[in-house]
Amino acid sequence: MSCQPFTAVPQPPTTLPSCAVPVGGSNSSILDACCNGHINAIATYSAPDTTTSSPSTSSTPVIVNSEDNDGCFQYCITDSPDIVQSCLAQKMEEYEKDSASGMGIFGCFNTDKAVGAKRNDDEAGYASAGMRISGGFCKSLNRKPKMPVLDPPKFVNYRQQRFVHPTPRPPPTSSTVRNLEAKAEREESGGSSVGVPERKDSVVSPLTRDFPDSELLGPSFVTKLHVALQPFKHNPNHSNSLSLLEAGLCEDAPARKPVWRRLSHDVLKQAFDKMASEQKVAENKLWGGRFTEGLDPVMEQYNASLPYDRLFYAEDIAGSIAFARANKNTGILTADEFAAIEKGLAQIKEEWASKTFEVKANDEDIHTANERRLSEIIGKDIGGKLHTGRSRNDQVATDLRLWLREQLKTLEGYLKLLIKTSVQRAEAEIDVLMPGYTHLQKAQPIRWSHWILSHTTAFASELERLREVIKRVNRSPLGCGALAGNPFGIDRHAMAKELGFEGLLPNSLNAVGDRDFVFETMQWGSSLMLKMSRWAEDLIIYSSLEFGFVRLADAYSTGSSLMPQKKNADSLELIRGKSGRAFGHMAGLYVTIKGLPTTYNKDLQESVEPLIDHIKTVSDSIQIATGVLSTLTVQADKMHAALTPEMLATEFADYLVRKGVPFREGHHISGRVVALAEKENVPMDKLSLEQLKGIDSRLGDDVVECLDYERAVELKNATGGTKSSTKSNYTFSFVRDLKTTSVTHKMQPDPHSTDVVANINYFPATGVPIPKSAWKTKHLDDNDEYTRPMLIRDVRKADKTFDLDVNGFTFVTLPRKERVGRNSSEEDVKREYYPELEEVAKKLTGASTAHVFNHVIRAHSSPTEKGIQDAQGRWQDIPSGHPHVDYEGSPDALSGTLMELSFPPHIDTLFTKSSRFCFLGAWRPLKTVKKDPLAVCDATTVPDSDYQVRLREFSRTGNKSKNYVMSHGDSRQKHEWWYMSNMQPWEMVVFKGLDSKREELGWRCPHTAFRVKGTEGEEPRESIEARIYLTARAPSIHHPDASASTQPTESSSIAHDKLRLVEA
Q: Which residues form the Argininosuccinate lyase C-terminal domain (predicted)?
């Protein structure tokens, strides 16, 4: 049975009939303009039955029909059919010419008035949402409509509309249907249709696949279209062809027609879904509620920052956790909601770290990506609460400061390594003399070490500046909102403390719009690059064949593609060249920000990518400089050969000054000596004594001493001069002053912190035999004649910070989480705690290998309890009550210790001369320390004379070993002891047990427990101490029994030349 026509009804239905497919075209506005606004709505129906009687034409809508329209009728609902029909007759030929444009568009609906295609239940959802949907299907997105889009026509009151039909066109014959089926089969198989012109566009048949996004025209391109008329086509598309509509919607169609029916509905559904998705694109943005259209694709890419700010994923997650915790404390989040958010964010962090995080199209930045993923994991009801009271303005400022702080601390470690490498080189090659230059001309003889330390001094100045920059970077903007602050009373101080910030930015407007910390960083980086560029320029000259003072290692040189003999100093030239790049970063940021209005503007996004590149440029340059310096070879003979007697002319003037001649007169006499040598065409040292006396009789027999280069250098004995003893003192003080400014090592002030005076149970002074009874560990109550009261300072109040390589210890703040406790099994400690400590140790020192080989849990019930086992069979170790260093360091002294430890398999390499090794102790409490805290002594305050080697016995194994114990000595009052008051389980002190490189000031660190007066009634302390073995390969790092030479070789490595400090 054929489809029945749509007959007249007294009132219009809420939807069009199910057999009606709404279609239209982008020319409706022109049509409406031509018809003077008489068109109200348009619909297309399949051909009705021929037996249907024709209603009166005087009151019916017009039927737009022609022989070329393949039996597809388009109905214009209008009150003026004659006018519309007349207009259509006049315009049909014009529309026929436009048919090739392919601007067929699925009809536009005003769902506010419940007009639409009833396809399935989804349509009710579109209508109930009250959306005005514009969109459709276009053959080619590259084609633009030839007709302008005008203002939409006005819809008449639908209660006045009459839905009746005139005499319809007869249905197609069976042969027509067969022809259409054959045509569809040929199209499906890729062939052309007989009798049908080839398509000139590239529409893909819906029989083969769904419409791609590029063929859907959404509201970004059609914004004012409300009523549309399908343009007339010789070669109709799938939306109005009889092959789709007649065959798919008529019940008596052949067997294959249900496929067409499904496809027709799929086409419409996909079009509607695309329209809706276009509408909802903006809603998927954090800012999308106010917008109804998505971003232009080019704008989407132009606006995105995720390609580079994904570097901040860890900082963004840390800030979100701190913010969520603060919101929990204000009551915005429940404890369960916070727990869900924290767990979800931890999962996201793991996804980023493992590179399994799936970035989606709407993730314009790291903040959007993380929040979107959080809502996917825990649901929007909870995930949507995370951002309460927070803006991306304070969020990005927080992320940037957190990331930059860690980067600057890493750079601090690299710069310290460069300085230390320079000092080592200067000390090892202090006897090498070379020409000193002014105006690039030979001036006076100097030491090679003097040249090195001249640049080291410049680098040290930059180290000081860097520490000042870190202080200003380390201020928190979190909680300032978009610009005006947070309305929920959030505790900004608590968030800042959790994130390791030293303080707050006090003004919300300034906090979100301030990029001074980026300026300062780039200024500092540019200043450092400038100094490294000059350093590199000198070495480029010195490494040339014309000078030949130094030879660069192959690892930092390149050759020529044409000239085999060339060895180019490309590493140094790139340092020189990249300095210009760093300057460009700084200048570009100045120009970007100079005219911005107060607070946040999108322009500030342009500060991020240059900053990232700036940090990488500076970081790479420092490391390359360190590698170049540590591996170059000094050609001492060529340096000495470059010295010439004329460089000693000033020595003649100084010689005369010592004989009472005014310097200006002596300067002229010396000049005449130089002129005579030039006249005679001989070096100054070839002039005879008679010739010299002929210039001035006061030039005596001893004037020949002025021609000694070593003497000339040693005479410069004032501070800062070239005299060797001055140089040694200078380099020692240089290393001593290298203290770190790792911000997380500097704890926040505690109102309960206090310095204390407590007894330290020293051992006898050096030279006084240690009684055998003292071979065993002293305990806190074992006071004797060597016990001394000492001031023990609280690091929470310290005005300085502590470096592992200088002071021998440092304090570290770990992430707050549950860790092993007193009841944890040995297996749990090794499985859960050892890996974390190994990563901390490697990051803290830069070592290549870290292995935790031993731990001790102390949880005793009385200070004298010893020699017993707990319920798990573990020996109860009580706090050691005397200052000691764990290891003495010689192979025989360590052998007994290593026998009882679960040591790594590569222990056989421990004492090789090419291997540097280190033992660290890592001590932290299992609960807040109220009694018997641990104190550490600043290694720079303890002279070697205050250490004494002690033979130690292990009571349970019988093994013997050696370690250092500490006497009070004459320098007792200079010992600086430090502890941390109210130490928490997430706070840890790391100290040196032994470093095989004893040139370090902090190669060992004395430590001891001590009794605080008034804490006798407190609960005993519970703590865990682990010992960590670290190694680093580098020829310049040697065992203490090896040769004293510290001259680096060409195979030295940047990464392993030092156990460099990088903040944990």
A: 647-714
* Residue 872 shares a structural domain with residue 1016: yes
pLDDT digits (tens, 9 = 90+) for 866-889: 444 545 555 555 667 778 887 766
pLDDT given for residue 846 in this prediction: 76
Say which range, 27-36, 125-134, 527-536, 580-589, has the weakest mean pLDDT.
125-134
The two three-digit tokens of residue 1055, written as one number:
């990464």
Cβ contact 120:265 at 8 Å: yes
Q: Is 923 helix (H, G, I), strand (E, B) or coil?
A: strand
Catalytic residue positions, numbered: 439, 560
Residue 467: how many other CB atoms lie within 10 Å: 18
pLDDT of amino acid 137: 28
Q: Which of 623, 641, 659 is the last residue of a domain?
A: 641
Give percent of the chain with pLDDT exceeding 70. Answer: 58
- Is residue 986 located within the same domain as residue 1042? yes
Contact between residue 453 and residue 426 where contact means Cβ atoms under 8 Å apart: yes
Give CA separation, 1016 vs 378, 793, 933, 1021, in Å.
49, 20, 12, 11
Inter-residue contact 592 to 603 (CB < 8 Å): yes
Q: Distance of CA 412 to CAs 88, 416, 463, 631, 842, Å?
A: 79, 6, 7, 21, 16
Residue-by-residue DSSP string for 152-212: PPPPPPGGG------PPPPPPPHHHHHHHHHHHHHHHTT-PPTTSPPPSS-PPPTTTSPPP
φ/ψ of residue 136, rounded to 5: 170, -160
- 221 Cβ contact partners less than 8 Å away, ≥ 6 residues apart: none
Q: What φ, ψ does residue 64 adopt, rounded to 5°?
A: -80, 110
- pTM of full prediction above 0.85: no
Measured CA to CA, the distance from residue 43 to residue 830 in angstroms comes to 75
Which residues does residue 977 pair with via DSSP β-bridges, in sequence order? Answer: 792, 937
C-beta separation of 615 from 525 below 8 A: yes
Q: Domain total for the chain? A: 5
Q: Please give the backbone phi and psi of residue 144, each rounded to the nearest 5 degrees, phi first.
A: -110, 145
Q: Cα dist. 622→217, 422, 551, 628 in Å?
A: 54, 12, 19, 10
**Which is more confidently placed, 280 or 429?**
429
Indicate if the pLDDT at residue 580 is higher than 50. Answer: yes
Residue ranges of E strands in 598-734: 633-634
- Domain residues for the domain of 1006 are 805-1064
Instruction: With respect to residue 170, please indicate whether it lies within any of the assigned structural domains.
Output: yes
At residue 574, what is the residue type? L
Residues 642, 434 contacting (CB under 8 angstroms): yes
Provide the sign of the torsion angle of the four alpha carbons 246, 251, 257, 261, taken in this order: positive
Residue 788, classed as helix, strand or coil, is strand
User: Are 958 and 949 in contact, with CB atoms under 8 Å apart?
Assistant: no
Bridge partners of 1031? 849, 917
Highest mean pLDDT among 17-31, 334-348, 785-799: 334-348
Would you say residue 622 lies in a domain?
A: yes
Give yes or no: residues 972 and 882 share one domain.
yes
What SS3 string covers 293-334?
Answer: CCCCHHHHHHHCCHHHHHHHHHHHHHHHHHHHHHHHHHCCCC
Q: If pLDDT is split at 50, 70 and 90, which confidence band does 725 have?
A: low
Mean residue pLDDT of the chain comes to 69
Q: What is the pLDDT of residues 157-192, one digit of tens each?
A: 322 333 333 334 444 444 544 555 555 555 555 554
Per DSSP, 630 falls in state H
CB 196 within 8 A of CB 48: no
Residue type, 810: T
For residues 898 and 814, state if they share a domain: yes
Q: Do the domain assignments include residue 305?
A: yes
The pLDDT of residue 236 is 34
How far is residue 81's CA from residue 63's CA, in Å, rounded to a whole number?
Answer: 9
